[in-house]
């Protein structure tokens, strides 16, 4: 039998060790529900900020694969609807900001080094010329094609961002269209991977 003084000392020591060899019934302290909620919220904010940064980077630098990142992200969301929707919206906003860089470059001048380098490939130049001719003077058709490019990637959104900038498609058309389209695309990827994982 442990004396009351021994039990008191043992209980304090067990809080650090997490167990007791002397047979006392001390238990390690449990996290309160409020503490767990705070920790989860911090984790969600960190994921959202990371997703935002990766989305911008991917939109500016096409070799950064956003789809692979979203697939990996889906494995950590555990089917939480709020987290999935938040990450999808953040992806849409980040992607629109990133593509705005290409839009502004084309709107300023098609002779900038970045634009010339991207259109140096004959296939990209043909796509650009074809879509520029097809959408010139048709802002609503341009918006529809932008939306399709944002959701399914056909035609490539980078090409369409350049076309939109060259044709001076209104900013109030370009930004919301790309944001919504990319958010829908992100949600489809996250939900699709989640469905495969059996959320």
Automatic annotation (TrEMBL):
Keyword Translocase: no
Segments passing through the bilayer: 45-63, 83-106, 140-167, 173-197
Pfam families: VTT_dom
Keywords: Membrane, Transmembrane, Transmembrane helix
Nucleotide-binding is among the record's keywords: no
Domain VTT residue range list: 83-189
Origin superkingdom: Bacteria
InterPro entries named among the record's database cross-references: DedA_domain, VTT_dom
Family: Belongs to the DedA family.
UniProt-listed PANTHER family: ALKALINE PHOSPHATASE LIKE PROTEIN (PTHR42709)
Name the UniProt record assigns to this protein: VTT domain-containing protein
């Amino acid at each position: 039998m442990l004396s009351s003084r021994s039990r008191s000392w043992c209980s304090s020591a067990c809080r650090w060790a997490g167990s007791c060899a002397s047979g006392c019934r001390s238990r390690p302290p449990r996290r309160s529900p409020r503490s767990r909620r705070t920790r989860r919220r911090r984790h969600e904010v960190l994921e959202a900020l990371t997703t935002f940064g990766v989305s911008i980077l991917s939109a500016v630098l096409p070799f950064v694969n956003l789809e692979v990142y979203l697939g990996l992200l889906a494995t950590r969301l555990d089917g939480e609807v709020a987290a999935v929707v938040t990450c999808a919206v953040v992806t849409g906003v980040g992607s629109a900001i990133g593509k705005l860089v290409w839009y502004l470059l084309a709107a300023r001048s098609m002779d900038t080094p970045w634009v010339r380098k991207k259109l140096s490939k004959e296939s990209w130049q043909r796509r650009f010329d074809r879509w520029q001719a097809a959408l010139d003077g048709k802002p609503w058709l341009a918006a529809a094609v932008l939306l399709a490019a944002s959701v399914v990637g056909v035609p490539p959104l980078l090409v369409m961002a350049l076309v939109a900038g060259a044709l001076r498609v209104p900013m109030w058309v370009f930004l919301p269209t790309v944001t919504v389209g990319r958010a829908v695309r992100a949600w489809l990827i996250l939900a699709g991977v989640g469905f495969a994982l059996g959320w």
